Amino acid sequence: MNALHTPTTRAREAAPPAPRRAERPSRWQRFRRSESAAFYLFLVPWIVGLVGLTLAPMLFSLYAGFTRWDGVHSPEWIGLANFRVMFGSDPDFWPSFGRTFYYAGARVTLGVLMALALAAILNTRLPGRTFFRTVFFLPAIVTGVPMFVVWSWMFDPSGGILNYLLDKVGIAGPAWLGSTTWSMPALILMSLTATGGTMIIFLAGLQGIPVELREAAIVDGAGWWHRFRAVTVPLLSPVILFNVVMGLITSLQVFAEPFVMTQGGPERSTYVFGMYLYNEAFWYSNVGYASALAWVQFLVIVALTVLVLRFARRRVHYMGS
Amino acid sequence: MTATAPAPRSRTTLRLSLTRGRIALVPLYVPLCIAAFFFILPFVWMLSGAFKEPSEIAAYPPQFIPDGLGTGNFTEAAAGVSLWRYLGNSVLVAVVSTVGTLFCSTLTAFAFAYLRAPGRNLLFGLVLSTMMLPPFIILIPSYSLYQWLGWLDTYLPLTVPHFLGVGCAFYIFLLRQFFLGIPRELFEAARIDGAGRLRQYWQIALPLAKPALVTVTLFQFVASWNDFFGPLIFLTDSSKFTLPVGIRFFQGLYTTDYGALMAASCVSVLPVLLLFLVAQRFFVQGIATTGGKG
Amino acid sequence: MPPRTAKRCDADLLLSPAGPRGPFRVTWRARVTARPPSRRAVLRGAAAGAALAAGTASGCGFSRGSGDGLVFGFHGDSIAIDTYQQVAELYQRRNPGARVRCTYADSLGFFQRLPLMFRAGTAPDVVIVAESWVSGLSQLGGYADLTRFLERDGLGEDTWVPGALTPARIEGQTLCLPCLVYPKGIAYNRTLLREAGMPDPRPGWREAQFVETAAAVAHGSGAGRVWGLHNGFGTAQPWDVPTIHGSLPFDPYERRMTATDPRVVSSLQLLADLVHEHDAMPGAAQEQDTVNFTSGRFGLALFAGYFLTAWTEQIGSRFDWGVVPFPAEWSGTYQNNNAAVFEGSRRKEEAFAFARFLSTDPEAQEMLAPLGTPALRETAGTWQRGLPAAAAEYPWPELIQQMEDQLVAYQGGVFNKIWDVLGGAVQAVENTGKPVGQALHEVQERGTEILRA
For the whole model, what pTM was predicted? Predict the structure, then answer.
């Protein structure tokens, strides 16, 4: 069999036997009907969940976006007023978008690059690779408040371990979470340690690259960098694309890190969109406005996702085609 | 398989080239060890914090190795809250929600991967879009919904939604991609043998998707294990609390008992770590065997 | 806490390659080894599933009927939880007919849950609320007005220590009864002060001596430096800044800004000078709570009653320390803990009886003492004697008396937004040396906009 066969082309090939359609239309139609029926039958639990549990709250929050609502009393319909405020006069709106893009851009770029590099290194026969794989994957499975507490300890400018170590090598460490310049990099640094998941995906993707291709490159006398560029990266591009898309969706919604570590400060330097949304909803009792913000964020994420997929369509190398 | 025959030769070549490159690999250890140091530093710090006296925690310069291996923080943590009960509750909720996730996301992903129907793309877009709205913005209507259903203060809001695919978008997507990698010929063959779609799902798709199922299991278990907000909002009876809620009791309104917090965190990390070590075997191996050897 | 924080981590892993060559491609060889699960395995799985489902369902216990007695909601760390439970038990022993059921969470979590419960009508009948939660959630209409109960039972200002009713009084209503108060003062590191040749501060000391002491203690540089004062102002509690000299940045009742009030300006100027002129204090955002006074690297720090146990333990015998009231010119922020009655409670009479017990019963007040200073005047007077060694020596009567001058930082809704704006301004002044006048002028303008919206 052709090892390079792609599921998509395979799916295309496995499409119902079209030539037969002319001969036995009724049977084909019945088959088709049964396939649709089966599809929806398999989806019954998910549809029940969507209609019963997800859709109603989602639509309600959409409605709430057009109201003034403190979350307790009855919502009051105000039409587009929330949107007029956010695009017109709210000084937090655009800057928090900017910060979110800063975070997401750095987080996705560095995260994907680092995970790719680690995966590439750990895909060799390096002694101790199992140990390293475990170490790099560990932070991805342990999250929550205790980890945040430990990190804010480590970031402490004068008593923390990071600046203590920097001090040892003669560098005066920054104020980290206390500095408007360094707070965002600190959060990004922290979240980069949770890229173990991305790394595992890359590792898996690398192991999926046929040995004979790399071997061919070796025979050709290509150096490791050239091999990486010419063989590994193109073959891995679908994996890279998906890590980028999913990384984007999650990091554009970043909230936990700034919420626990900096509360958006200092001087709003880490006041990302997720923080802004949360504060409006639960701290300023402005749930209607926050719902409007959430749907704007929703649309931005949808648009970006579609954009990235479009952009990648021509660049990602699919082996089958 | 065409690839199996030349494999030995290729392995030899590769090994040779690696031996040649081994010296070149040595400098890789330096950045690798530095990165590993930062990845593991928080854990080391947490572990050492669990054994420290209150006065050692605030000490400067920072102390990596505590003066003594006193287990005072652990006994304090266990005495302070019903740690073992919370641990049991956490296991229950995590296991049930994981079972639910596996049930619903495999069914849904199977349908998206193999069955064509009008509206499929639209529905798949809906699956993805459910993860683009921050969960806390639908919290208030969700709370009202569960109240109306009479589910407040039960484990139902923490488990039942997973059986219905709520919050499973990632898993559905993952499994769909995985199912797409299974050769369609297998299903065709099964269909000719007279197997229905349910049997194809159960006897071909699921067994062949084992590594993906292990991934989903691991990640849903971890997600449920670490979930703080769900149990906090939906549970009021303290005997039903889960670990993440319980661990917060070492943080007061103004002060934090760092030692006990770290000790309790160490205890709470252990089950997940064990699960990972068990799953990891499947995981890495599973991926490895499905790779280029084909 | 972040909703479903954990999701972030799986997010990374769950991405699967889009493409045609997914990492998880199954090979033909896998088909040979993969066997469909046997029937017995299926049955076993089903049985396990059923058992688990039953286990989940058994979690449905506590549902709220009308004949179940009072529900008492409180929050805090494990010690606070234990203490409140014991007080509830005492109440039931005293009143054989009464039944009190407890529900609790950690403080932040409980605060997040409270508005949801107000809305849904599931809030506890009696609930313990910090002073900031009273004004903060008062707009949501969750607290019952207790004024008529107080008048009926003859309870008033002089039942409790000075100022204890101030946080409860919102727009003519009395929304809760004080249970615990947290006197504030200045903690000083006697060891460091000796080294710097400074005398111990005494009650009635002046701000000038405060500044002089802070400046004298500060020395060194780099990571091991010693500061004159720990910056407990501005970062997490922006209200501690303007209240130093006794003002709020806005008038909550008239709904107008007062950020350029001379008292606000002089308070922030004092902090700015301590940072920039005297080099005695790190900037607002530069110090994390993780390293505070207890590290022994700060000469002075804000002290509040609730730090007592934690600080005593963390400091141990590493250095010698004491507590003194604020300098004479200072006011400060009032902090306490109260018992409120839920407006939606079906048994307000019984709820008030229990709240009154928490607030005015001497035995209950004594039981609460490990969590702070009893609010009941007579118990607060004797409370000091029971304290562990050094703490019994602190000038408690002066610390408590001083609370009369303290201001309650009004919070909630748009006011929280103004506090956040002020917090940002404080950070700008202390970190980048922005002129105080300009920063507060901006707060004044932005705040006016917020209040108008």
Answer: 0.83
